[in-house]
Design a protein that fits this description.
The complex is a heterodimer of chains A (280) and B (319).
Chain A (H helix, E strand, L loop, with lengths): L4 H22 L5 H17 L14 E4 L5 H11 L39 H14 L6 E6 L6 H12 L5 E7 L2 E2 L2 E2 H4 L5 H7 L3 E6 L3 H12 L6 E6 L22 H19 L2
Parallel strand pairs in A: 1-2, 2-3, 3-7, 6-7
Antiparallel strand pairs in A: 4-5
Chain B lengths: L3 E3 H13 L5 E5 L3 H4 L2 H6 L4 E3 L4 H13 L3 E7 H7 L1 H9 L6 E5 L17 H6 L5 E3 L4 H13 L4 E4 L4 E3 L16 E4 L4 E5 L3 H14 L4 E5 L2 E3 L3 H11 L2 E8 L4 H12 L4 E6 L9 H7 L4 H19 L1
Parallel strand pairs in B: 2-3, 2-4, 4-5, 5-7, 6-7, 10-11, 10-13, 13-14
Antiparallel strand pairs in B: 1-8, 6-12, 9-11
Helix pairs in contact in B: 1-8, 4-6, 9-13, 10-11
The chains are: A alpha/beta (280), B alpha/beta (319).
Chain lengths: 280, 319
């Protein structure tokens, strides 16, 4: 499904607004990393991936694994807007009364292809899905978004090695390089750079991209489809908390819900951004 | 003389035998295919075998992804690494989403022998059993192993199965009406004074113990509890009621495994004396396998001793 840039911008802006409401309503959740990944998710579900909300288990569909599984305030609003479930369901996020679990959950949230949350594990499942596609000679592609803090997990590099070994050119990963993790700057907690050199050394095709430039993201995903014999990774340079001025580049907003005053301020900013995108 | 074969060898053969009728079966290993006995499958079906290198966590995750696409993956390593090192991946990527991955732990228990404590997994049954939604198996001989592999392929869900390193005597092939069913224990010897509930090659040890004890006038019932979870409560309840005391025996720590499972159940269902035989909360050590087992009294005499203790307690309570 191809979508025009203006619509993509509206979806991403609305996604941030919905994500903010989800986290505020249940007073918990992860906004920082969700807002940094929102644009890539928007492009994937509205421009790149072959998925059908009416047939979410179609064996030929493209797959997506949210390896940074805590970023459900980005994934769920995008799935809802794409039509996998009603937007009202988002009100049950993290609630005992529903199944909109805090971390991505495949058995109860329509459209989720893999349960994730424990960091470093989603990418392995994505490798398995890509491997199954190769075995069955299917054309579907597999996408996965990882955090740049998440890749400190050794399992991620085990998965990167395996993807290269099996020439998984049907796999495209995105590393959401927002430079922050719970305890502070990734460069201070555990440096992961230089990522381009590391990924190339691991046998991957590397595409650096501005993770908030929807057209650039779309072009990068298209470019990845043309590569054969190796998996592709998009190194998406992003801003944690993107879209809310006081959340941007502040590790403190990794997993914190805003208070009433902060919520009103954030909401005003996101409502204004949405109106601007809608051309109002 | 009865066939003697290691359950890991029977497992490897069963994978090859069942491959043609199970097109979705895929096998993953972590650089131990010669020991886990998946090598024959890798040669017969290279397109369905994936050597994931010494990276068990990723191997389990990849299997989860394969299962999510309809494959039936069996992941293989030593119990220490498939159940131990990759425990959290098994919990979060397999059991929680309920994916159809079979986690295989070969070389379970002390009988790893010479490699020593780092490779002697005595905790796998306990830690796998503690995960919700997990089925946990440990067949006792080659005949039972073949049936177990077949049953696992027919079962759609997460499961763990322990394989043994040593060649063991086949005992289930001569049992009348023997049928393998996940979650159903097998009565391998009738008896009235005490019941030994055994798992893995401790079943053969228990049968030998029963012979020793018979000469002492003690009638021992022996149950092969190849499925630790879900536990066959019916067969245990009947044993507790009919024989009045239970000895459990396993090649693993007495904390958390078969013994714990049986004691947990009977503590409310029918509180009779339950003596747990196994490794008493200490690490193993290097040595020839049989010598290590003997050093920890994981043998027929060790079981017989626990049975005598159980009889003493049972008699004291009935005074």
């Amino acid at each position: 499904m191809k979508t025009d840039m203006k619509t993509l911008e509206v979806v991403a802006a609305k996604g941030r607004l919905l994500g903010l409401d989800m986290v505020y309503d249940c007073a918990s959740g992860h906004l920082g990393g969700s807002f940094s990944a929102m644009d890539a998710l928007t492009v994937l579900y509205f421009d790149v991936m072959n998925v059908d909300p009416q047939d979410p288990a179609n064996p030929d569909r493209d797959r997506f694994v949210l390896s940074k599984g805590h970023c459900t305030p980005a994934l769920y609003p995008i799935l809802a807007q794409r039509g996998f479930f009603p937007q009202e369901d988002l009100k049950l996020f993290r609630s005992i009364d529903g199944h909109m679990s805090g971390h991505a959950e495949m058995n109860h949230v329509k459209g989720v292809d893999m349960s994730t949350g424990s960091l470093g594990q989603g990418i392995s499942a994505a490798v398995g899905m890509a491997l199954a596609g190769k075995m069955d000679k299917k054309d579907y592609r597999v996408y996965s978004i990882l955090g740049d803090g998440e890749i400190e997990e050794g399992q991620v590099w085990e998965a990167f090695m395996a993807a290269a070994k099996y020439d998984l050119d049907n796999l495209c990963a995105v590393i959401d390089v927002n430079g922050l993790q719970i305890d502070g700057k990734t460069a201070d907690v555990m440096p992961t750079e230089p990522l381009d050199k590391k990924m190339k050394a691991f046998g991957w095709n590397v595409i650096p991209v501005d993770g908030h430039d929807l057209a650039a993201l779309s072009a990068a995903f298209e470019q990845a489809k043309t590569v054969s014999g190796k998996p592709t990774v998009l190194l998406a340079k992003t801003v944690k908390g993107k879209g809310v001025s006081f959340m941007e580049n502040d590790a403190g907003w990794h997993g914190k819900a805003p208070n009433a005053e902060q919520y009103e301020k954030a909401r005003a900013e996101l409502v204004a951004a949405l109106a601007e995108k809608e051309g109002k | 003389m009865a066939e003697k074969i290691a359950t890991r060898a029977a497992y490897g053969k069963a994978l090859v035998e069942l491959a043609d009728q199970e097109p979705d079966l895929v096998v993953l290993d972590a650089d131990l295919s010669g020991s886990t006995m998946t090598k024959d499958f890798s040669k017969a079906h290279p397109d369905r075998f994936f050597n994931m290198g010494i990276a068990e966590g990723n191997m389990v995750g990849v299997a989860a992804g394969l299962a999510a696409c309809g494959k039936k993956p069996f992941v293989n390593s030593f119990a220490m690494f498939s159940a131990g090192r990759a425990w959290e991946q098994v919990r979060n990527s397999v059991a929680y989403p309920g994916l159809n991955v079979k986690v295989i732990g070969s070389h379970g228990g002390l009988s790893v022998g010479e490699d020593g404590a780092t490779h002697q997994c005595i905790e796998d049954l306990a830690i796998m059993r503690a995960i919700p939604n997990m089925t946990v198996l440990c067949p006792c001989d080659g005949n039972e192993m073949r049936a177990a592999v077949k049953a696992l392929l027919a079962y759609d869900g997460p499961a763990y199965m322990r394989l043994g390193r040593l060649a063991v005597e086949t005992v289930t092939d001569t049992l009348e009406g023997y049928e393998f069913q996940i979650g159903k224990g097998v009565l391998v010897r009738e008896g009235t004074d005490v019941t030994v509930v055994a798992v893995g090659m401790n079943v053969q040890m228990a049968l030998k113990a029963a012979e020793i004890l018979e000469e002492e006038g003690i009638s021992v019932r022996v149950i092969d509890m190849h499925t630790i979870k879900p536990l066959d409560e019916e067969i245990i309840l009947a044993a507790a009621r009919e024989t009045g005391c239970i000895v459990t025996t396993e090649e693993g720590n007495v904390i958390g495994g078969l013994g714990s499972a049986v004691a947990e159940y009977l503590s409310t269902a029918c509180p009779v004396p339950v003596i747990r035989h196994g490794v008493y909360d200490e690490f193993g050590r290097s040595g020839a396998a049989q010598k290590v087992l003997d050093a920890y009294a994981i043998n027929a005499e060790g079981i017989a001793e626990k049975v005598r203790e159980a009889i003493v307690i049972k008699n004291a309570l009935s005074l």
